[in-house]
Structure formats: C-alpha cells, structure tokens
Write a structure and sequence with these properties.
Layout (H helix, E strand, L loop, with lengths): L13 H13 L1 H14 L3 H27 L3 E4 L3 E6 L5 E6 L3 E7 L2 H6 L2 E7 L10 E6 L3 H13 L23 H28 L1
Antiparallel strand pairs: 1-2, 2-3, 4-5, 5-6
Helix pairs in contact: 1-3, 2-3
Protein name: PH domain-containing protein
Keywords: Membrane, Transmembrane, Transmembrane helix
InterPro entries: YdbS-like_PH
Length: about 210
C-alpha cells in the first residue's frame, strides 16, 4: 500500500464490502432471537419463518447502508511526528498518537478479511500495552507490511521518512545530530546564571566571616 506523508488516506475499497458483509452477518443474532419469540408466539411455523426473514432483511439493509456510509468517514494521516485518525457517521471520533508513544504494530487478519485481501494494523502504545489493547486500528489495509515498516521506522529512529511508503531516509546515531543554536545559547545562559549565583554566595560568606 502506497502512503504519502502528510496526505490523508483511506482503507482499501474492498473494506467497504467487508463491512457490509460483516454487518449483515451480525444481524443474524437478533434475527434468531426474534425468530424464536415468533415461533413461540405463533402456531404457524411458515409465518414465523416469514417474520424471521423479514426482520433479517430489514436489519441487514439498515446495517449495509450504515457500513456503506461509514467507510467514507474513515481517514488516516501520517506525519513526521504522529499519526491521526478520524471516523464516525453520527458521532465523530478523532485521535492523535505520537510515534514516541508507540511500542508495537501488529498485523491482524481474520478468515473473512483474508477472503477480501485486507488486514488491520493494531497500534499499541505505552499506556495500553500492559492490557494488550490497541489505542488505534488502521482498518482495511491491503499489503500492510510496507505501512507497518514506515511507522516502525519513525518509532525506532525519530527521523523523517521520504514522502512515499517504503522510502526511508538514512538515520544516524543521536550523537551525530547537531544541537540547535537556540538550545546551546540557553545552556550558556543557565551556566552563566549559576556562576553569578556562586559569586553572590561567596561574597555573603566572606561578609559573615
């Protein structure tokens, strides 16, 4: 999967079909429940089956419409310092995960996802890893290995990665990175302040003797 830094991207288009199928299948649980109630309350088994089929069609259609619209709300973004995400139809959700909090990136692919050729990237952070929970999931990713590689390159090195997925900028040891001039000036100012304090303390000590 090709991803550009600082450019939002969406899940693979097949993720929309996957969501529709999963949502439709999840409707079977309430259908069986209402169907059982219909069988108990109705003497005619044919009518009960018709009721079950009708309920399933209504719920599956509603769930399919929701899944279709939900796909259009999912957005991800990689920058040189953090990941951001957003999703939601009625209730919008957004989040930011800095790379320096990420501890691991796992690739998850169930049987149905394998059928559609997509995977999820489960992002674990320092605050969530103890419970084996993911703070964020990049869902519906086709060929997730390059994307995981880009994220982990940021996590390990802290160096920027080139604009196209898989193109890594060379990273050197931290000792070779020059300090900003502003930081050096601040250090010099602090050192001078400490010297001035030391001189004042010495004069006070001399007067007390």
């Amino acid at each position: 999967m090709s991803v550009e830094i600082d450019v939002p991207f969406t899940p693979d288009p097949s993720f929309r079909s996957y969501l529709i199928v999963v949502t439709a299948l999840s409707m079977l649980v309430p259908v069986f429940f209402f169907g059982f109630m219909a069988v108990v309350m109705m003497e005619d088994g044919g009518v009960a089956l018709a009721v079950m089929a009708g309920i399933f069609l209504v719920l599956a259609l509603a769930g399919g419409i929701w899944a279709y619209l939900f796909y259009d709300t999912v957005r991800y973004l990689l920058t040189t310092t953090e990941m951001t995400w957003g999703r939601g139809i009625l209730w919008k959700q957004t989040g930011i995960v800095p790379y320096n909090r990420i501890t691991n990136v796992d690739i998850i692919q169930g049987p149905l996802m394998r059928l559609f050729g997509i995977s999820n990237l489960r992002i674990q952070t320092a605050g969530y890893s103890a419970n084996q929970l993911a703070e964020i999931k990049l869902q519906g990713i086709r060929d997730p290995e390059p994307l995981r590689g880009v994220i982990m390159d940021f996590v390990r090195s802290g160096y920027p990665v080139a604009a196209v997925t898989g193109a890594e900028m060379p990273a050197g040891p931290a000792s070779t990175v020059p300090l900003p001039s502003g930081g050096m000036a601040a250090d010099a100012a602090v050192l001078q302040e400490l010297r001035d304090i030391e001189a004042v303390l010495k004069r006070i000590e001399e007067k007390m003797q």
